[in-house]
From TrEMBL:
<dbReference type="Pfam" id="PF04072">
    <property type="entry name" value="LCM"/>
</dbReference>
<keyword id="KW-0489">Methyltransferase</keyword>
<comment type="function">
    <text>Exhibits S-adenosyl-L-methionine-dependent methyltransferase activity.</text>
</comment>
<dbReference type="InterPro" id="IPR007213">
    <property type="entry name" value="Ppm1/Ppm2/Tcmp"/>
</dbReference>
<protein>
    <recommendedName>
        <fullName>S-adenosyl-L-methionine-dependent methyltransferase</fullName>
        <ecNumber>2.1.1.-</ecNumber>
    </recommendedName>
</protein>
<dbReference type="GO" id="GO:0032259">
    <property type="term" value="P:methylation"/>
</dbReference>
<dbReference type="InterPro" id="IPR011610">
    <property type="entry name" value="SAM_mthyl_Trfase_ML2640-like"/>
</dbReference>
<dbReference type="InterPro" id="IPR029063">
    <property type="entry name" value="SAM-dependent_MTases_sf"/>
</dbReference>
<keyword id="KW-0808">Transferase</keyword>
<comment type="similarity">
    <text>Belongs to the UPF0677 family.</text>
</comment>
<dbReference type="GO" id="GO:0008168">
    <property type="term" value="F:methyltransferase activity"/>
</dbReference>
<keyword id="KW-0949">S-adenosyl-L-methionine</keyword>
Amino acid sequence: MDIRNISDTARLTATYRADESARPDALFRDPLASRLAGEGGRTLRDTAPSVLRSGWPIVTRTKLVDDLIAAAVREGCDRVLNLAAGLDTRPYRLDLPSGLVWVEVDLPELVDEKNAALAAEQPGCKLRRHGLDLRDRNALVGFLDEALGARVQRGSSAPRALVLTEGLLIYLGHRTVADLAHALARPEIHWWITDVTLGGAHSQLASSFEDGPRFDPADGIGFFEEHGWHPLEVENLVVQAGRFRRAPQELWQFAELPQQIPRSNEIPWSGVVRFRQEATIGEV
């Protein structure tokens, strides 16, 4: 499997969503995934190691993130900022309030490709896209100012926003993730959903990328707590994949393991976490 750039990763992820959607017992349905994946995505999947060809980690992660987004919407979320959105299609396939504002951010060339591919499709909520390099901290802060501040009309309540960084952190350095956690600590942002990979599980990913993923905090979830983010749900990917019967059968035994918050990277761990910004806890 030769993943050359971020666009390849996005296409491969879409391919796994398309494969899951075709199952009679699908965990979710994504009718746009096959179109977005294209032949490039299917080629990447077909040349992947056989143990990864089913894409069970991506399928499980997608289902978990879907459910955590739904939880935030039930709790009053009215704005989603999807950073590094890739070829995600949640504004089209999830049951979302029509008044919810969904803002996608990714590299300009990927945003242009997605706009062209989905030009005729109608999302279920208010959708906007921005081309932006998220490694540029000043550009990120400017985007947040615009997305969360300038759009709020006088007399209206401030947004109750959720930030999603699915599949992003493994590409970033430790300092960059710390800067991101700090930049997101704004009163309008109540929740943050992200995937986290630690220890040996993190090391396995390193061989899949030219430079290798870098963010692997020694204190695990404690890294986010130190930056003001309280974990609400911590979902172990292997445990949930076993429960969903999507992991290889030899991993199904882990479905009965208790969910624990990883506070170091000494034990391999990969999962999805929904955080609440500590400053907003208790707000109605």
